[in-house]
Amino acid sequence: MYIRYEVADRIATITLDRPEAANAQNGELLDELDAAWVRAAESDDVAVIVLRAEGKHFSAGHDLNDKSWPDPRSITLDRIYSLESRRYLEYSLRWRNIPKPSIAAVQGRCIAGGLLLCWPCDLIVAAEDALFSDPVVLMGIGGVEYHGHTWELGARKAKEILFTGRAVTAEEAQQVGMVNTVVPRAELDDRTRELAARIAAMPAFGLRQAKRAVNQTLDVQGFFAAIQSVFDIHQTGHGNALSVTGYPILVGMDEMKANIK
């Protein structure tokens, strides 16, 4: 089990519990996480959902040694598309559209696939030590499967982090509106829970409609269509790598791992 699920005072807390691997996401973790989101969404006892992580880092992204994937030396683009569509794109969109407010509490590194976990949340509370990055251009991939970059960071900042692979600090993320609040690391859980409790006291119908209004405004502006189309662009990276090396990514694994300290 890689996920813990608890409910208290109408707040569901979903915890990534794989700290020994910096909460890297294998298939089992993502499937458990999706089940926890659905459980919270369907529970009458839950008004607000908090996503947090155990350990030093929020998430190191996709587990590059995930044994639930087929052998990467023989995988086809069709198979990659099917697996990534379900576990990355569809899961993230479902979490984004759950009709209850959600808050991500982020500390340490949040790398590449880690963004797929926090960006679907309605609010983000970041510890002062939080660093957000998507260095997968090193692997010949144009970004993660759920392309929130442009919407979360703005076009030029999105290009900067993709082109350079550098991390955005919690303070920078707050300045561009990606993060709501930056707090000392020791206060992250308490401050997040205080925010969740304040929201949980609001009328549930009003919260649902407010969330729907904002999300639909983004969709009218093109968010949903962009997410879908950029997922296909992402897949061309895998296709290019397969044609060059017979492997779904190019070089860059060592450089990616170097981002986690």
Automatic annotation (TrEMBL):
CDD domains noted in UniProt: crotonase-like
InterPro entries: ClpP/crotonase-like_dom_sf, Enoyl-CoA_hydra/iso
Source taxon at top rank: Bacteria
Xref: SUPFAM superfamilies: ClpP/crotonase (SSF52096)
Gene3D superfamilies from the UniProt entry: 2-enoyl-CoA Hydratase, Chain A, domain 1 (3.90.226.10)
Protein name in UniProt: Enoyl-CoA hydratase
